[in-house]
Design brief:
VOC_core, 4-stranded mixed sheet, mainly beta, single chain, Glyas_Fos-R_dOase_dom, 2 helices, globular, VOC domain-containing protein
Amino acid sequence: MTLSVRPQPLLAVRDVEKSSAWYCGVLGGVSAHGGVEYERVNVDGQLVLQLHKLDVGHHHGVFGDPEKPLGNGFAVWFEVDDLDGLAGRVAAEDVQTAVHENPNAGHRELWVRDPDGYLVVFAGK
């Protein structure tokens, strides 16, 4: 039997609504939950990202210490169909590495920082 897996990454963020607006704007997504503590970002009807307020525990405990940097050594990676269109929706100050060819992977990439400083990579043709 093959295990069916669907990634549903969750990022702990300081401001859920700000992060939701950023990700929805860049990805062309929509809010599928909304709120100050938790959000689901959907693109074309599919869940692509969850956002959770860093210091709210709910039933599972808090995600982390709000005094520590977020995302050190971690990247959120999205494959997209229209990298150039997406690049046009990213603010210049968010760009870490502009659109470039990754010769090892054989595709183009754009590396940016989200409002909490997470490294976000968009890859495509």
